């Protein structure tokens, strides 16, 4: 084999190796990517069924039910609600009427959480949850104006 052909084979092999490594890295990144959705987005079927994602909003007052280590509660963004089931120990800051982010999967209309995170102080809310609440409230205000302005 001529030196020119040998160099060409080496370069081609290097390009193939770099492409394979890039494909493996992108595949690993895609499989570990976790998206955030609000209860309204889940109700509109924007969230993936059977795939891990995060849900965020406020814990609805009076919705927390405990049975040993299994906890059921409802997350709301003031427009829609979503029932959540979690088995384990909740964070100390988890309370009704406060912000929460849960990670898990949607199964048969119930969000099965593997991890529940509560906000860390009185003023903090994850940016995604704050934006989702703001959008839901804006939707409620538009709906309220439409209904109030309607003629009988």
**Order of helical and strand elements:** HEHEEEEEEH
Q: What is the helix fraction of residues, given as a range?
A: 25-40%
> Helix segment count?
3
Strand order of the largest sheet: 2-4-5-7-6
The biggest sheet amounts to: 5 strands, mixed, barrel
Q: For the record, what CATH class of the largest domain applies?
A: Mainly Beta
Find the count of extended strands (DSSP E, 2+ residues). 7
Q: Please state the CA-atom Rg, rounded to the nearest Å.
A: 23 Å
Overall mean confidence score, pLDDT: 81
* CATH architecture heading of the largest domain: Beta Barrel
Straight-line distance between termini: 89 Å
Which helices and strands appear, and what pairs or packs with what?
Layout: H1 3-32, E1 36-37, H2 39-43, E2 53-59, E3 65-67, E4 70-76, E5 81-87, E6 99-107, E7 110-118, H3 127-149
Parallel strand pairs: 1-2, 5-7
Antiparallel strand pairs: 2-4, 2-6, 3-4, 4-5, 6-7
């Amino acid at each position: 084999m001529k030196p020119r052909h040998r160099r060409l084979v080496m370069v081609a092999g290097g390009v193939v190796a770099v492409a394979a490594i890039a494909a493996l890295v992108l595949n690993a990144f895609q499989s570990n990517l976790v998206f955030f959705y609000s209860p309204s987005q889940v109700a509109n079927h924007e969230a993936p069924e059977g795939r891990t994602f995060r849900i965020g909003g406020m814990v609805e007052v009076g919705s927390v039910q405990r049975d040993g280590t299994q906890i059921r509660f409802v997350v709301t963004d003031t427009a829609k609600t979503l029932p959540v089931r979690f088995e384990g120990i909740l964070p100390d800051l988890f309370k009704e009427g406060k912000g929460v982010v849960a990670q898990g999967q949607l199964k048969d209309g119930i969000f099965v959480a593997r991890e529940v995170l509560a906000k860390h102080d009185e003023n903090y809310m994850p940016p995604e949850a704050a934006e989702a609440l703001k959008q839901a409230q804006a939707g409620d205000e538009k709906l309220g104006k439409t209904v109030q302005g309607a003629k009988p």
